[in-house]
TrEMBL record, chain A:
Residue intervals of the DUF112 domain: 18-435
Any Pfam family: TctA
The organism of origin for this protein: Agromyces humatus
InterPro entries reported in the protein's UniProt record: DUF112_TM
Protein name, per record: Tripartite tricarboxylate transporter permease
Residues that span the membrane, as ranges: 18-37, 43-67, 106-130, 136-160, 167-186, 316-338, 350-371, 383-401, 407-423, 430-448, 468-485
From TrEMBL, chain B:
Name listed for the protein in its UniProt record: Tripartite tricarboxylate transporter substrate binding protein
Keyword tags: Signal
Pfam families: TctC (PF03401)
Residues spanning the membrane: none
PANTHER family registered for this protein in UniProt: BLR4371 PROTEIN (PTHR42928:SF1), TRICARBOXYLATE-BINDING PROTEIN (PTHR42928)
Signal peptide: 1-25
UniProt similarity note: Belongs to the UPF0065 (bug) family.
Highest classification ranks of the organism: Bacteria, Bacillati, Actinomycetota, Actinomycetes, Micrococcales
């Protein structure tokens, strides 16, 4: 272990590798700032640039891009309510509200700190336990994934701001949108009306750019846009109290993110939503959620970064990608002539440990780069809206086109921009829609697979101990609060009855 | 200052052969003359109908780089994704007659017209080169009772054998259907979305058998986490790690089916243009870049060109039709 770490540091700490890591982090952050361009696209489009580098150096740079792009997406989530990828959608809920209140600097700082802590925790676990953890993750098949999806839906269904009915409605709308296209295991197209652009379904990146960026701009224009936010530099810094409030959410978020991240397929989006949902249930400040609670930024940001790092557990230990970006990275392994698989740790120790240590360095660089820059980025909000909004619209459409080189994406952004505007007018929560859209296909896939495994009989969900435990947890979380509430109401009414009786007597 | 520039130029000339190839593209018309009077009008484009970073993208970029080197024509790669490939192929259909467009093709070119309402089929295009074949291996867990593909077929006759497939029109689905047709048994399917998902479920013991590309399982075969029973190929693989795996035919299951990778030009281009790209492709086949591509993806290098490629597609299409319709 120590030898391996030393080897890793020797590999990663060469000036050349450090430089490329830094360039990767910087380029990633810039890419993440573009609406719609997340880490998966960022890594994919920059792979050709790395072909002339040594494999280790190239992978170190790509990992830097991965981390940078994630943080870049967070910046836009907080400042202009435009997430770079699905995993930072939740961050917009409280991050954007904090920005509106002049606390953008604090929101960005806590994201950087939370992400850093989460990364360190998960990297330590990754270094120490990757192979056994990966074996553990293999126990999660379709049946267990279905149970996790159910648990996830139960946890997040209630978090949609005030009204549960509105949240459910939006989640259902998202699920409905996700049914467009060809489903897992079938070759028939649904709801495509002969349009070939719809065969692959409605891509969530376009939906996200439309609903969040374009929708928000349209809404701000309609309400006559508030004054630019002028916060003093001193107010941009994070306070001690905010740091203290964030400690718990960061640790819990890291745990949830890591646990979900090591499972191939479950993913960081679910992790960020779940950690937010859980904080909303356990936090002392739960009333502030949705109105700019720093816990609501710290938890999901830690969770999605922990998941991003945990994704490397199955990727490096088994050669099975843990998420979209790691799948692209695995493709890059082949380009560099490396054979991903269980023997990678043994046959390529320099590469694996160099990479792991460089993940660590990448996260340190990200923190050094972004903590001081957080207040600077926040100054973006001082740009008068007359200039800021056209820029947002322009980059949104360019981003949408760049993802697929297809004008249809731009049309989709327009349509969903209008939809997002209407939703804001009607005060409909948008995050559940995105969750429905992202979870829909995953949920359906697990459902189809479980049904196939059980030959149509879903009782196989009760044969797997793991899925039984998860389902029990879901039941507890779903029904528990309701029962508790009933109990409380009953007790209170009994007390008031006895009190009124006393008065009568 | 000038000497540093010169040094850089020298290094560039030695190491970046591809780049020097590009710079000589200015003299493209002369090299074009040597190949029968035709040169593509301007820079060429390689359309990849799937997203950056996937298997199609990798092959598209390898072909583009290889052709760039032999022709001196600048070839830019463009990902036109969407609709499981349908968007890219349809876009390509609209480029009819343009001899500077190419597309990195694979099985979706045949599967899409058979399953979806699209305007094209393989006869709409001008097939240029099939690079090679990606067959599949039947793989099981190391403690599985099956030792040969015949064992699996015999078991499927008597009891439930759960096979994972990575899609309704995927290579493994086709292979299992062909085995069913050849032997009269049936497998129970569980659908997944990619080879790596299938791999994870096989390693986790959730399913009994899977049919995966060698490139997807080589790591697991070397580490002993999986064992390969047979390969659904015409001939055994020549790679050291795979040479001991018998073909299904040797074991009495007469099935072989490959996913092809290759490239096509739009329909309606002139014969000279077609010959130009075929000649360039033949030259590419002799290059190290080609060998490297085939080896890193653990494929079998059965390159065919032009009319032979069309004949191949006809047979492949007939097989697919049996499975999908």
């Amino acid at each position: 272990m120590i030898d391996n770490l030393l080897l890793g540091f020797q590999t990663a700490l060469t000036p050349e590798n450090l430089l490329w890591c830094f360039i990767g982090v910087l380029m990633g952050t810039i890419i993440g700032l573009m609406p719609g361009l997340g880490s998966t696209t960022g890594v994919a489009i920059l792979i050709p640039l790395t072909l002339t580098l040594e494999p280790v150096t190239a992978l170190i740079m790509l990992a830097g891009i991965y981390y940078g792009a994630q943080y870049g997406g967070t910046i836009t989530s907080v400042l202009i309510s435009t997430p770079g990828e699905a995993a930072s959608v939740v961050t917009t809920l409280d991050g954007y509200q904090m920005a509106r209140k002049g606390r953008a600097g604090a929101a960005l700082a806590i994201s950087a700190i939370g992400s850093f802590v989460a990364a360190i925790i998960s990297l330590a676990l990754l270094m120490a336990l990757a192979p056994p953890l990966a074996d553990l993750a293999l126990n999660f098949g379709p049946v267990e994934n279905l149970a996790i999806m159910i648990l996830g839906l139960v946890i997040v269904v209630s978090f949609a701001g005030g009204s549960m009915a509105r949240g459910l409605m939006m989640a259902a709308a998202g699920l409905l949108i996700s049914t467009v296209g060809v489903a897992t295991g079938f070759s028939d197209a649904r709801f495509t009306f002969g349009n070939i652009d719809l065969l692959g379904g409605i891509p969530f990146v376009e939906v996200m750019i439309g609903i969040f960026a374009v929708g928000e701009v349209l809404y701000q224009i309609r309400i006559g846009a508030a004054e630019p936010i002028k916060a003093r530099f001193r107010d941009m810094l994070i306070t001690k109290d905010e740091l203290k409030r964030s400690a718990g959410p960061i640790v819990r978020g890291s745990g949830i993110g890591f646990a979900l991240g090591i499972l191939p397929g479950a993913g960081s989006t679910l992790a960020s939503f779940m950690s937010y949902g859980i904080e909303k249930k356990v936090s002392k400040n739960r009333r502030l959620f949705g109105k700019g609670a720093i816990e609501g930024v710290a938890a999901p940001e830690s969770a999605n970064n922990a998941a991003a790092n945990a994704n490397f557990v199955p990727t490096l230990a088994l050669g099975i990608p843990g998420g979209g970006t790691t799948a692209v990275l695995l493709g890059a392994f082949t380009i560099y002539g490396l054979q991903p698989g269980p023997l990678l740790f043994e046959t390529q120790p320099t590469l694996v440990w160099g990479l792991l240590v460089s993940f660590f360095i990448g996260n340190v660089l990200l923190l050094i780069l972004n903590l001081p820059l957080a207040p600077v980025f926040a100054q973006m909000l001082r740009i008068p809206y007359g200039f800021l909004y056209p820029i947002i619209l322009l980059t949104s459409f360019i981003g949408a086109y760049a993802v697929s080189n297809n004008m249809f994406s731009v049309v989709l952004v327009l349509i969903f921009g209008l939809l997002g505007y209407v939703m804001k007018e009607l005060d409909m929560p948008v995050a559940p829609l995105v969750l429905g859209l992202v979870l829909g296909p995953l949920f359906e896939k697990a459902l189809v697979q479980t049904s196939a495994l059980g030959q149509g009989d879903f009782s196989i969900m009760l044969e797997s101990p793991i899925s039984v435990v998860i389902l029990a947890l879901a039941l507890l979380m779903g029904v528990g609060p309701m029962l508790l509430g009933r109990l409380r109401v009953a007790r209170r009414s009994r007390r008031s009855v006895t009190e009124s009786e006393k008065v009568d007597v | 200052m000038a000497s540093t520039t010169a040094k850089f130029a020298a290094i560039g000339a030695v190491t970046l052969l591809a780049l020097t190839g590009c710079s000589s593209a200015a003299a493209g018309s002369t090299s074009g003359d040597q190949e029968g009077g035709f040169a593509p009008s301007g820079d060429a484009r390689m359309i990849v109908p799937f997203s950056a970073g996937g298997g199609s993208d990798l092959s598209g970029r390898a072909i583009a780089a290889g052709l760039e080197e032999v022709t001196g024509v600048n070839i830019s790669v463009e990902n036109r994704e969407g609709g499981s490939g349908a968007v890219g192929y349809s876009h390509f259909l609209a480029q009819e007659g343009k001899d500077n467009y190419l597309l990195a093709a694979e099985t979706a070119m045949l599967a899409l017209p058979l399953t979806q309402d699209v305007q094209f089929d393989y006869t709409s295009f001008t097939p240029i080169m099939k690079l090679g074949d990606d067959f599949t291996l039947l793989v099981v867990a190391p403690d599985s009772p099956y030792e040969t593909c015949t064992d699996v077929v015999d078991a499927a006759e008597k009891e439930r054998v759960v096979a994972a497939v990575s899609g309704a029109t995927s290579l493994d689905e086709i292979v299992f259907t062909l085995v069913e047709d050849a032997t009269g048994v049936s497998f129970d399917r569980v659908p997944f979305e990619s080879g790596s998902e299938v791999l994870a479920s096989l390693l986790g013991g959730k399913i009994d058998v899977a049919s995966l590309n060698p490139g997807e399982v080589l790591g697991q075969l070397e580490s002993g986490d999986l064992k390969a029973l047979c390969s659904f190929s015409e001939e055994r693989y020549e790679y050291d790690q795979l040479a001991d795996i018998p073909t299904a035919k040797e074991q009495g299951v007469d099935v072989s089916f490959a996913q092809f990778r290759g490239f096509i030009a739009p329909g309606g281009i002139t014969d000279e243009a077609r010959e130009y790209w075929i000649d360039a492709a033949k030259e590419f086949e002799q290059s190290d870049a080609y060998a490297e591509y085939i080896e890193s993806n653990v494929m079998q290098a059965n390159a065919v060109y032009g009319d032979d490629f069309v004949t191949y597609l006809e047979g492949n299409n007939a097989d697919l039709q049996k499975v999908l319709q």
